[in-house]
Amino acid sequence: MGEAFSSNPELVSSEFVSIEYKLSENIPSRDTVLAVGTFDGVHQGHQSLFKLLKEEAESRNLLPNVVTFRNHPREILTPGMNLNYISSLEDRIKLIRGQQIDLITVLDFTRQLSCIKARDFCRLLVRDLRMKGLVVGPDFALGHNREGDIKTLEGIGQEMGFSIKVIEPKLHGEQPIRSRLLRKIISEGGVETASKMLGRPFKLCGVVCKGAGRGASLGFPTANLAIESQLLVPGDGVYATWITVNGQKYKSATSIGTRPTFDSGQRSIESYIMDFECDIYDTTVSLEFMVRIRDELYFEHHEDLIRQMQDDVEQATVILEGNVGCSNVGS
């Protein structure tokens, strides 16, 4: 779970109380098989792990249970790091439930938690979550200084009465699918590759807010999205996207960037929604990113920008009309 921090017994003791209380709120009705991790994005690798988790639980008449962290351990273990998440905690929980797993325990990863030894953490999982099995990836480790690697956990499991099941990594080409790799790909604009690794289009949720009105003045009124600061945003450029408004999907072309033609400097997310004229200010919407059409460009004349925007909308329309039913991309 974590790398080394100098252990303070008082802090660790108080953290034990906090974890015990949290786990005691989620005592299952019968023994369980667990998966433990952040699971940011719930990508194809995570989905394979959850599939094995369910199979293992079913074969032993146990309950599948996921323990996930509200925040990523690296944010605590690497001071000053601000991680951008592929999915919010709310979406992550929905995605895990979408894997037919109903038991989910959410823990805050703290500096004190990183100091708890693997044996002690396992003892809590056995006692409070009735763990009889643990399903992990090949590089999994938990406990202070990552002392609880697979070999160590197998020994602890023999003592405490739980098994360890290790799954091989899910590959995209020759690369293991990992959340860290996905963040890099998405931040560089590679939404098509990301869709294949996620098993669905990359999605971003936000609230429509007031913009400068420049899009409307150019004949392309846009919905400006305000998103949570910790969420990952694709790299600057123009994308073919599906936007969901009040449960209805519409074709859209989305621009991400600093609007260099207007000297804005402030990064924004703006979506032109096709065949749509409603007032949706303060409405929560979601964007599914299908294809990156082009880089963000500077235009010396507004007329050139308007011609390019017309071309962007035409390209987005062609792309999206070929991607109806897009929520199954990469499956």
Folded structure, characterized:
- With 331 residues, the protein is an alpha/beta fold.
- It has two domains: 9-171, HUPs (Rossmann fold, 3-Layer(aba) Sandwich), CATH 3.40.50; 178-328, Riboflavin kinase-like (Elongation Factor Tu (Ef-tu), domain 3, Beta Barrel).
- The protein has eleven helices and 13 strands.
- The protein has helices spanning 9-24, 44-59, 73-77, 89-97, 111-114, 118-128, 150-160, 179-187, 191-198, 214-217, 302-321; strands spanning 32-37, 63-69, 103-107, 131-136, 163-166, 171-172, 175-176, 202-209, 223-226, 237-245, 248-257, 268-273, 284-294.
- A six-stranded antiparallel β-barrel has the order 8-9-12-11-10-13.
- α2 links the parallel β1 and β2 (63-69).
- α6 (118-128) packs across α7 (150-160).
- Residues 1-12 and 325-331 have low confidence and may be disordered.
Q: Output the structural class.
A: alpha/beta
> CATH homologous superfamily of the largest domain, by name?
HUPs
CATH topology of the largest domain: Rossmann fold
The dominant shape is elongated
Sheet of most strands? 6 strands, antiparallel, barrel
Give the topology string: H per helix, E per strand: HEHEHHEHHEHEEEHHEHEEEEEH
**What is the straight-line distance between the termini?**
30 Å
Which blocks of ≥5 consecutive residues have pLDDT under 50?
1-12, 325-331
